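Example 9 (inverse folding). The structure is encoded as follows.
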């Protein structure tokens, strides 16, 4: 999947098989459906965080996920959210 710190994975199908292969490490992740970002998140364990999102009704429509392993997940998550808001009239992704 991904071995390089601070490099995004490809967009991957959002399903149990893909989630099972995501590393248990600090990082950030994004989920989308129909080319619209639904959620931007970050945590100490991206695999667990993505698994936890799986049961949320809004996230259930997600079709793809990508992630980046990084110890700087808090700052990068904040930057990604700010960038999203700058490009979408101050709005947050649909599931946030």
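The amino acid assigned to each position is listed next.
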């Amino acid at each position: 999947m991904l071995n390089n710190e601070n490099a995004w994975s490809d967009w991957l199908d959002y399903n149990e098989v893909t989630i099972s292969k995501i590393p248990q490490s600090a990082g950030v992740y994004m989920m989308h459906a129909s080319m619209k970002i639904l959620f931007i998140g970050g945590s100490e364990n991206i695999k667990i965080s993505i698994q936890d999102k799986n049961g949320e009704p809004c996230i259930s429509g997600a079709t793809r996920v990508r992630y980046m392993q990084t110890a700087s997940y808090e700052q990068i998550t904040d930057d990604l959210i700010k960038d999203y808001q700058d490009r979408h009239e101050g709005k947050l992704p649909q599931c946030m």
